[in-house]
Amino acid sequence: MKPALFLDRDGIIIHDHGYNKNPEEVRLIDNIQSLISFFRNQDFLVFIITNQSGIGRTWISLDDYYQVSKRMLELLTFKPQAIDHIFFAPYFEASPIGSDLAKTNLEFYHSEWGVNQSGQWSTSWRKPNPGMLLEANNKYGPINFSNSVIIGDRVTDLLAGYHAGIRKGYLKINSPEPGQNHVIDLEEFNHFKNKHEGQFELVHSYNDIVCENN
Ligand SMILES: [Mg+2]
Predict the structure, then answer these.
(1) Which tens digits make up the pLDDT trace of 123-132?
(2) How far is the CA of 14 from the centre of ligand 1 (A)?
(3) Spacing, Cα 54 to ligand 1 middle (Å)
(4) What is the pLDDT of residues 181-190, one digit of tens each?
Protein backbone atom coordinates (compact mmCIF):
# COMPACT_ATOMS: atom_id res chain seq x y z
CA MET A 1 0.00 0.00 0.00
CA LYS A 2 1.42 3.32 -1.03
CA PRO A 3 1.12 6.43 1.09
CA ALA A 4 -0.06 9.64 -0.51
CA LEU A 5 0.66 13.32 -0.25
CA PHE A 6 -2.58 15.31 -0.33
CA LEU A 7 -2.20 18.95 -1.24
CA ASP A 8 -4.68 21.78 -1.21
CA ARG A 9 -4.36 23.94 -4.35
CA ASP A 10 -4.90 27.61 -3.53
CA GLY A 11 -2.38 28.88 -1.00
CA ILE A 12 -0.42 25.61 -1.11
CA ILE A 13 0.64 25.03 -4.71
CA ILE A 14 -0.27 28.40 -6.16
CA HIS A 15 -0.77 31.78 -4.53
CA ASP A 16 -4.33 32.41 -3.44
CA HIS A 17 -5.76 35.60 -4.90
CA GLY A 18 -9.26 34.72 -3.76
CA TYR A 19 -11.29 32.67 -6.27
CA ASN A 20 -8.39 32.41 -8.71
CA LYS A 21 -9.67 32.78 -12.23
CA ASN A 22 -6.89 34.30 -14.31
CA PRO A 23 -4.29 31.80 -15.60
CA GLU A 24 -1.85 34.65 -16.24
CA GLU A 25 -1.73 35.36 -12.51
CA VAL A 26 -0.85 31.79 -11.56
CA ARG A 27 2.40 31.70 -9.58
CA LEU A 28 3.81 28.71 -7.76
CA ILE A 29 4.48 28.96 -4.03
CA ASP A 30 8.19 28.92 -3.18
CA ASN A 31 9.73 25.43 -3.01
CA ILE A 32 6.54 23.56 -3.84
CA GLN A 33 8.41 21.79 -6.65
CA SER A 34 11.11 20.48 -4.32
CA LEU A 35 8.46 19.42 -1.81
CA ILE A 36 6.62 17.38 -4.45
CA SER A 37 9.91 15.91 -5.72
CA PHE A 38 10.86 14.92 -2.18
CA PHE A 39 7.67 12.91 -1.66
CA ARG A 40 7.63 11.54 -5.23
CA ASN A 41 11.13 10.19 -4.70
CA GLN A 42 9.85 8.32 -1.65
CA ASP A 43 7.20 6.70 -3.82
CA PHE A 44 4.23 8.71 -2.54
CA LEU A 45 1.18 9.18 -4.70
CA VAL A 46 0.45 12.91 -5.04
CA PHE A 47 -3.07 14.32 -5.20
CA ILE A 48 -4.58 17.76 -5.19
CA ILE A 49 -7.85 18.08 -3.32
CA THR A 50 -9.39 21.50 -3.70
CA ASN A 51 -12.65 23.14 -2.67
CA GLN A 52 -13.81 25.38 -5.51
CA SER A 53 -17.02 26.86 -4.18
CA GLY A 54 -16.56 29.80 -6.56
CA ILE A 55 -17.93 27.51 -9.28
CA GLY A 56 -21.06 26.67 -7.29
CA ARG A 57 -21.48 30.34 -6.43
CA THR A 58 -21.11 31.13 -10.15
CA TRP A 59 -18.30 33.56 -9.31
CA ILE A 60 -15.91 31.63 -11.50
CA SER A 61 -16.73 29.43 -14.45
CA LEU A 62 -15.72 25.84 -14.94
CA ASP A 63 -13.47 27.03 -17.73
CA ASP A 64 -11.78 29.56 -15.40
CA TYR A 65 -11.07 26.72 -13.00
CA TYR A 66 -9.80 24.53 -15.83
CA GLN A 67 -7.50 27.20 -17.25
CA VAL A 68 -5.95 28.00 -13.85
CA SER A 69 -5.37 24.30 -13.11
CA LYS A 70 -3.93 23.76 -16.58
CA ARG A 71 -1.48 26.63 -16.11
CA MET A 72 -0.48 25.28 -12.71
CA LEU A 73 0.28 21.85 -14.21
CA GLU A 74 2.37 23.50 -16.94
CA LEU A 75 4.47 25.18 -14.26
CA LEU A 76 4.99 21.98 -12.25
CA THR A 77 7.93 20.49 -14.08
CA PHE A 78 8.56 17.24 -12.20
CA LYS A 79 8.82 14.41 -14.75
CA PRO A 80 7.10 12.27 -15.73
CA GLN A 81 4.23 13.73 -13.75
CA ALA A 82 4.02 15.92 -10.67
CA ILE A 83 0.42 15.17 -9.75
CA ASP A 84 -1.48 11.89 -10.08
CA HIS A 85 -4.93 13.41 -10.01
CA ILE A 86 -6.78 16.60 -9.12
CA PHE A 87 -10.08 16.26 -7.31
CA PHE A 88 -12.19 19.37 -6.91
CA ALA A 89 -15.41 20.08 -5.07
CA PRO A 90 -17.44 22.81 -6.80
CA TYR A 91 -20.07 23.02 -4.06
CA PHE A 92 -20.62 25.94 -1.77
CA GLU A 93 -22.55 24.36 1.05
CA ALA A 94 -21.04 22.01 3.62
CA SER A 95 -22.84 18.83 4.43
CA PRO A 96 -22.43 16.28 7.19
CA ILE A 97 -20.19 13.30 6.61
CA GLY A 98 -22.16 10.20 5.81
CA SER A 99 -24.07 11.45 2.80
CA ASP A 100 -21.57 9.85 0.49
CA LEU A 101 -23.68 8.56 -2.34
CA ALA A 102 -22.75 6.73 -5.49
CA LYS A 103 -21.14 9.06 -7.96
CA THR A 104 -21.24 9.35 -11.66
CA ASN A 105 -17.77 10.41 -12.59
CA LEU A 106 -17.40 12.66 -15.55
CA GLU A 107 -13.81 12.98 -16.57
CA PHE A 108 -12.73 16.55 -16.93
CA TYR A 109 -9.03 16.89 -17.62
CA HIS A 110 -7.39 15.51 -14.45
CA SER A 111 -10.38 16.53 -12.40
CA GLU A 112 -13.61 14.93 -11.39
CA TRP A 113 -17.13 15.93 -10.63
CA GLY A 114 -18.97 14.30 -7.79
CA VAL A 115 -22.59 13.68 -8.72
CA ASN A 116 -24.94 11.84 -6.38
CA GLN A 117 -27.69 9.39 -7.22
CA SER A 118 -30.22 12.19 -7.56
CA GLY A 119 -27.99 13.87 -10.08
CA GLN A 120 -27.03 16.59 -7.63
CA TRP A 121 -23.51 17.59 -6.86
CA SER A 122 -22.42 15.61 -3.85
CA THR A 123 -21.18 17.71 -0.97
CA SER A 124 -19.41 14.79 0.70
CA TRP A 125 -16.52 15.92 -1.46
CA ARG A 126 -16.32 19.36 0.10
CA LYS A 127 -13.65 19.62 2.79
CA PRO A 128 -13.77 19.12 5.80
CA ASN A 129 -15.56 16.03 4.48
CA PRO A 130 -13.16 13.34 3.23
CA GLY A 131 -14.95 12.47 -0.02
CA MET A 132 -12.13 13.51 -2.33
CA LEU A 133 -9.57 11.47 -0.38
CA LEU A 134 -11.86 8.45 -0.34
CA GLU A 135 -12.35 8.80 -4.07
CA ALA A 136 -8.56 8.88 -4.51
CA ASN A 137 -8.47 5.64 -2.52
CA ASN A 138 -11.16 4.10 -4.76
CA LYS A 139 -9.34 5.12 -7.86
CA TYR A 140 -5.68 4.59 -6.93
CA GLY A 141 -5.78 2.63 -3.70
CA PRO A 142 -5.56 1.01 -1.41
CA ILE A 143 -3.81 4.05 0.01
CA ASN A 144 -1.89 3.75 3.25
CA PHE A 145 -3.63 6.66 4.97
CA SER A 146 -1.83 6.18 8.27
CA ASN A 147 1.50 6.96 6.55
CA SER A 148 0.07 9.68 4.34
CA VAL A 149 0.54 13.42 4.71
CA ILE A 150 -1.83 16.33 4.16
CA ILE A 151 -0.88 19.96 3.64
CA GLY A 152 -3.30 22.85 3.61
CA ASP A 153 -3.72 26.45 4.65
CA ARG A 154 -6.99 25.95 6.51
CA VAL A 155 -7.98 23.71 9.38
CA THR A 156 -10.73 22.28 7.17
CA ASP A 157 -7.98 20.84 4.94
CA LEU A 158 -6.46 19.00 7.89
CA LEU A 159 -9.86 17.82 9.06
CA ALA A 160 -10.61 16.24 5.69
CA GLY A 161 -7.36 14.31 6.02
CA TYR A 162 -8.09 13.37 9.60
CA HIS A 163 -11.52 12.02 8.67
CA ALA A 164 -9.83 9.78 6.08
CA GLY A 165 -7.37 8.41 8.67
CA ILE A 166 -4.35 10.68 8.10
CA ARG A 167 -2.48 11.54 11.27
CA LYS A 168 0.25 13.79 9.89
CA GLY A 169 -0.46 17.21 8.52
CA TYR A 170 0.90 20.69 8.11
CA LEU A 171 -0.85 24.03 8.11
CA LYS A 172 1.08 26.45 5.89
CA ILE A 173 1.26 30.05 7.00
CA ASN A 174 1.36 32.40 4.02
CA SER A 175 1.67 36.14 3.91
CA PRO A 176 -1.71 37.58 2.91
CA GLU A 177 -2.15 38.10 -0.82
CA PRO A 178 -3.84 41.15 -2.28
CA GLY A 179 -7.55 40.41 -2.44
CA GLN A 180 -7.25 37.56 0.01
CA ASN A 181 -9.16 37.98 3.23
CA HIS A 182 -8.21 34.67 4.78
CA VAL A 183 -5.72 34.57 7.62
CA ILE A 184 -4.71 31.58 9.69
CA ASP A 185 -6.88 31.26 12.75
CA LEU A 186 -4.35 30.11 15.36
CA GLU A 187 -7.02 29.54 17.96
CA GLU A 188 -8.90 27.26 15.58
CA PHE A 189 -5.70 25.38 14.76
CA ASN A 190 -4.74 24.93 18.41
CA HIS A 191 -8.23 23.70 19.19
CA PHE A 192 -7.98 21.18 16.34
CA LYS A 193 -4.53 20.06 17.44
CA ASN A 194 -5.55 19.56 21.06
CA LYS A 195 -8.63 17.62 20.12
CA HIS A 196 -7.18 15.32 17.44
CA GLU A 197 -4.45 12.72 17.81
CA GLY A 198 -1.53 12.93 15.47
CA GLN A 199 1.30 15.13 14.37
CA PHE A 200 -0.07 18.42 13.09
CA GLU A 201 2.24 21.38 12.81
CA LEU A 202 2.35 24.94 11.58
CA VAL A 203 4.99 25.63 8.92
CA HIS A 204 6.23 28.76 7.21
CA SER A 205 8.30 26.98 4.57
CA TYR A 206 8.25 23.71 2.68
CA ASN A 207 11.91 23.25 3.54
CA ASP A 208 10.79 22.70 7.13
CA ILE A 209 8.64 19.77 6.02
CA VAL A 210 11.43 18.25 3.91
CA CYS A 211 13.92 18.57 6.79
CA GLU A 212 11.53 17.03 9.27
CA ASN A 213 10.72 14.04 7.05
CA ASN A 214 14.28 13.39 5.89
MG1 LIG B 1 -6.27 26.90 0.40
Answers:
(1) 688 898 898 9
(2) 9
(3) 13
(4) 556 678 899 9
